[in-house]
Design a protein that fits this description.
This protein is of the alpha/beta class. The chain is 50% helix and 11% strand. The protein has nine helices and six strands; from the N terminus they run E-H-H-H-H-H-E-H-E-H-E-H-E-E-H. It starts with 7 loop residues before the first strand and ends with a helix. It catalyses: N-glycoloylneuraminate 9-phosphate + H2O = N-glycoloylneuraminate + phosphate; N-acetylneuraminate 9-phosphate + H2O = N-acetylneuraminate + phosphate. Its cofactor is Mg(2+). Keywords: Carbohydrate metabolism, Hydrolase, Magnesium.
Length: 248
């Protein structure tokens, strides 16, 4: 790591600053209630939601030719048809999708302690939000959690030529803030995108948020630091800067 102090921190959004996984589960529970109470589904309701979850996890976006609303409504339509048989029911699929989506967005909030941390950090360093994903989906989340005002810049992978872990998006972020890769720290929960990307771009440090104590695969990229919560970051940044002043 270079001998300069940290000048900028890049934050991932999903499951780093907001609990996207938890919000999605709340959305699924609402859909299960709907299917059971209004449509009298029994255990099929949970099976449908499980199938949709699998489809979401395998999603591949080609932003130029896919509308996320159509794609995700199709996940529900296929899951319902695979579980119940019979003709496709687009209308029910849309009802499920929009209920899941609206519930999920309602539960995407920045916790008060996270807001306080970002506010304090921004007095010392530049802050940038760097999130992969479909433009519409990510912009809706950013609006729902009202996080834009805590950052000097916001970069959405789906709006760029390449997403994390490509070095180009990290260099783009550095240019936006007027800093060098060696001045920056990447913080995120995904080894393959956040950490690998930070390593690819030669950032000063990468910080992996490992909330659930997951043991990474041997082939996974190795972060410089591991924390269990984003709230541990200020102390960690202080210790990184201390190392710099001691080396100097």
């Amino acid at each position: 790591m270079g001998l300069s102090r940290v000048r900028a921190v890049f934050f991932d959004l999903d499951n780093t600053l907001i609990d996207t996984a938890g919000a999605s589960r709340r959305g699924m529970l609402e859909v299960i209630k709907l299917l059971q109470s209004k449509y009298h589904y029994k255990e099929e309701a949970e099976i449908i939601c499980d199938k949709v979850q699998v489809k979401l996890s395998k999603e591949c976006f080609h932003p130029y030719n896919t509308c996320v609303t159509d794609l995700r409504t199709s996940h529900w339509e296929e899951a319902i048809q695979e579980t119940k048989g019979g003709a496709a029911n687009r209308k029910l699929a849309e009802e499920c999708y929009f209920l899941w989506k609206s519930t999920r967005l309602q539960h995407m909030t920045l916790a008060e302690d996270v807001k306080a941390m970002l506010t304090e950090l921004r007095k010392e360093v530049r802050l940038l939000l760097l999130t992969n994903g479909d433009k519409q989906t990510q912009r809706e989340k950013i609006e729902a959690c009202a996080c834009q005002s805590y950052f000097d810049a916001v970069v959405v992978g789906g709006e760029q030529r390449e997403e994390k872990p490509a070095p180009s998006i990290f260099y783009y972020c550095c240019n936006l803030l007027g800093v060098q890769p060696g001045d920056c720290v990447m913080v995120g929960d995904t080894l393959e995108t956040d950490i690998q990307g930070g390593l690819n771009a030669g950032l000063k440090a990468t910080v992996w948020i490992n909330k659930n104590g997951v043991v990474p695969l041997k082939s996974s990229p190795v972060p410089h630091y591991i924390v269990s919560s984003v709230l541990e970051l200020p102390a960690l940044l202080q210790s990184i800067d201390c190392k710099v002043s001691m080396s100097a």
